[in-house]
UniProtKB/TrEMBL annotation:
GO biological process terms held by the UniProt record: potassium ion transport; proton transmembrane transport
Transmembrane segments: 153-172
Keyword Acetylation: no
Keyword Magnesium tagged: no
Residues in coiled coil: none
GO cellular component: mitochondrial inner membrane
InterPro entries associated with the record: Mit_KHE1
Pfam families, A to Z: Mit_KHE1 (PF10173)
Record-given protein name: Mitochondrial K+-H+ exchange-related-domain-containing protein
Annotated keywords: Membrane, Transmembrane, Transmembrane helix
Length: 283
């Protein structure tokens, strides 16, 4: 398992730096087991739901199916990149955390060596950019996101039963119910991932891994952003889209990560472009 701390913006007075925390690990090689009827049923339902969703996207623009599909696509696009990054973390794929959560002792073997070492790869200039050490920022990030997603999970979970009266409307599915269930499940996954990261840091399983190769990518990115900046001030952004391709190639990351990093950069640009941006709650 590898963790990447990728600054997107500089820390400014009253504004924390935005950092994309990427977790990468290969899917576990599980032994092949006979497929049960329950797994076949779930797989069949998932395929049917995906096919239905695709058909709705191909319906006429005036049809309610197309409008629902467009709403779903737009809702997905508006999700915070932090939530999407957390949802991509599968705690079951990573190293197990000993019972005790944040009170767990440092993971050590009998000879005192750490049994688990997860590198947190970051540019060497992370500290000057973010104004906080990488491990401290990861800890603050996880501790901020976990309760936020836990609150949202309960909000949507509690709200979902109140949408049941919409089932009385003929023909049209109960869209509010499915939306609440989807948002509850999404926030639950983000909450579990943030808790997992917090426990990894508390167990001292994560170690800082400054990378000169990543620093070179950031240095070139900042140079490009300075050249394209119309003002004389230092640009807030530190990572551009050109750097994403170099990052993926340099660290042999899956190509699909490019889409998520593109989304993160676009959202970050919108946040920093506001005349009086509302900073993320101080971590």
């Amino acid at each position: 398992m590898r963790l990447f701390a990728l600054p997107l913006t500089r820390a400014r007075p009253g504004h924390s730096a935005l950092v994309y925390y990427l977790a990468h690990f290969p899917p576990p090689k599980l032994p092949q087991k006979p497929e049960t009827w329950a797994s076949r049923l779930v797989k069949s339902a998932a395929h049917k739901a995906a096919d239905t969703w695709d058909r709705w996207g191909k319906a006429p623009a005036s049809n309610w199916k197309y409008k629902v599909h467009s709403f779903g696509v737009n809702a997905q696009a508006r999700l915070e990149f932090e939530e999407l990054a957390l949802k991509a973390i599968h705690p079951s794929w990573g190293p197990p955390i000993p019972s005790g959560g944040k009170g767990a002792k440092e993971l050590e073997s009998s000879n005192g060596a750490r049994t688990i070492q997860i590198p947190l790869i970051h540019p060497t200039s992370f500290g000057p950019i973010v104004k906080r050490p990488p491990l401290k920022d990861l800890e603050a990030y996880a501790n901020f996101r976990a309760p936020k997603h836990q609150r949202l999970f309960w909000l949507y979970a509690i709200a979902s039963p109140f949408t049941l009266p919409f089932t009385l409307i003929p023909i049209i599915p109960n869209i509010p119910f499915f939306f609440c269930v989807w948002r509850a499940w999404s926030n639950y996954r983000a909450f579990k991932a943030a808790t997992y990261l917090s426990d990894l840091v508390a167990s001292k399983a994560v170690i800082g891994a400054p990378s000169a190769q990543l620093e070179a990518i950031y240095s070139d990115s900042i140079s490009r952003l300075r050249q394209s900046n119309m003002h004389n001030s230092e640009p807030s952004m530190v990572l551009d889209k050109t750097a994403i391709t170099l990052l993926i190639e340099a660290f042999m990351l899956p190509p699909e990560i490019s889409h998520e990093l593109d989304r993160a950069i676009e959202q970050t640009a919108l946040r920093t472009a506001k005349t009086d941006p509302t900073p993320e709650k101080k971590r």
